[in-house]
Amino acid sequence: MTARSRFCAGFALALAAAVPVAAPAAGAPSTGEAPPRIETVLDVSGSMATRDAGGQSRLAAAKAAVQRLLDGTPDGTAMGLRVYGSEYAGEAMGPGCKDTRLLAPVARMDTASKASTLARVQALKPVGMTPIGTSLQAAAADLGDTGPRRIILVSDGEDNCAPPSPCQVARELKGAGIDLVIDTVGLRVNAAAKRELTCIANATKGTYVDAGDADELADRLDQSVKRALTPYAQSGTKTSGGKDCPSAPVLAPGQYLDKIRNGESRWYKVTLHPGQSLRFSGSVIPAGAWQTPTSVNAQLSLPGQAGVWATETAVEDRWSNVMSSGVQSERLSWDKVPSGTDSTEVCARIHSKVQTAQAEPVEVAVGIADQAVRPDGTPDKRVTTPGAEAGQPTTPSADSHHGDATETTAAAASFLDRPVTLVIAALAAFVLTLAIRSAVTRNRRRGA
Predict the structure, then answer these.
(1) How far is CA 163 from the centre of its chain?
(2) What are the Cα distances from residue 207, in Å, to 194, 218, 320, 402?
(3) 3-state percent breakdown (helix, strand, coil) of the chain, nearest 5
(4) Closest Cα partner for 368 from 21, 19, 24?
(5) What is the dihedral of CA 1, 366, 249, 439, to 10 degrees?
(6) First-to-last CA distance in the chain?
(7) Is 320 exposed, middle or buried (0-12, 13-18, 19+ CB in 10 A)?
(8) How far apart, in whole angstroms, are the C-alpha atoms of residue 371 and residue 432?
(9) SS3 readout for 66-95
(10) d(C-alpha 110, C-alpha 73), whole Å
(11) Residue 163: is the preceding peptide bond cis (ω within 30°)?
């Protein structure tokens, strides 16, 4: 995950707190979760000798990318490397389509094993065919039969050895209930190869990306490893946003879980008293491949008031496993409250431009801050700021959850048992509050 995305994920959680204390980022894997085992499958077929990858051969670009990958992979990561097309230079389909070998077994990497793997990679020569389907079957076996597993396939062309069909292999592996995701990277590929690599990724809820040179390929490999090592755990009380503000459910402070499609808006309402400010965010969590660039917009508006009260858009043009956008309003003034009442329902909207083919989970965080005030500006002690722990679900209510169930994470449930974490989180939330106020000030200036 990019640093900006990590900040947004933490920001989204801080928004859910009614006081400046935030829970640990929901993106952290639950305690005891097994780390993934990862294997990169690299194309070393004859076409990798083509010199069109930023002034060097495709294989030279791949070697440079693998070196950067190894340098950036944390020690202790269980990773291996398989290649195909590296040994048989003839034209006979029999031996050519069996030309796949395990260059480095899946094991916890350290300085010595990284150096050994890199030396083997540097000695590779592009000579053979493209047995992708057979290599995927072998890679799945390399990764064992327990725990989460990930294959990162790099190819500059489509399989020329089928059967087995690579896409069918991917479907069969996923259909067998194997906890396996295959990410694919197309290095200077044509349309047919792109379709095949995209099919492989989609069949396992992985991601397909293009690469044109060594730098792009290194970035793609790095992003795929980060995706495997930083899973995002969804949490929140299930809700269903409206298609517009009048049809929206009223949400109390807390964290909720909804679904949203590309190009869709989901609306919610939050009751606010004069003197209080509203914190609101949405974090879209795509389960599979998505196209870049992508964005998420959070917006607040007041019924009967012209214009948008507060808005923020987060744009992502690189891989991320969660895309978040959040806003904090100014304190509600009495002139924005309907006559004869002491509160109003703020319209809160999340709009997704996360380009996937299906509805994706979206975490919605709601928080209320600041003391309510009377018309003369004195504190209104009759109104207490509702409490809600960031990262934990709210108590279900009929008007906000429509009878849906609750999903939580073990990390959220045990948060209050960790006083040291609580203090650290409080300090982090204070810094976030300053950043939020700065962002709100900038928004006001842009809107002036």
Answers:
(1) 34
(2) 12, 15, 11, 34
(3) 30, 25, 40
(4) 19
(5) -80
(6) 34
(7) buried
(8) 19
(9) HHHHHHHCCCCCEEEEEEECCCCCCCCHHH
(10) 9
(11) yes
Cα angle 200, 206, 209 (rounded to 5 degrees) comes to 80
User: Max Cα separation, the chain?
Assistant: 89
- For residues 61 and 186, the answer to whether their CB atoms sit within 8 Å is no
CB-CB contact of 139 with 171 (8 Å): no
3-state SS, 150-193, equals: EEEEEECCCCCCCCCCHHHHHHHHHHCCCCEEEEEEEECCCHHH
For residue 131, the one-letter residue type is P
pTM for this entry: 0.61
Peptide bond into 253 cis (omega under 30): no
pLDDT tens across 282-329, in order? 999 987 667 778 899 999 999 888 899 999 999 987 667 888 999 999
CA 73 centroid distance within chain? 19
pLDDT at 25: 32
Q: Which residues of 177-205 are buried (b: 16+ CB within 10 A; e: fewer)?
A: ebebbbbbbbbbbeeebeebbbbbbbbbe
| Triad 439, 442, 445: Cα angle to 5° | 155
- For residue 238, give both structure tokens: 């299930």
Residue 24 DSSP symbol: P
pLDDT digits (tens, 9 = 90+) for 54-70: 889 999 999 999 999 99
Tell me how far apart the alpha carbons of residues 251 and 239 are, in angstroms, rounded to a whole number. 9
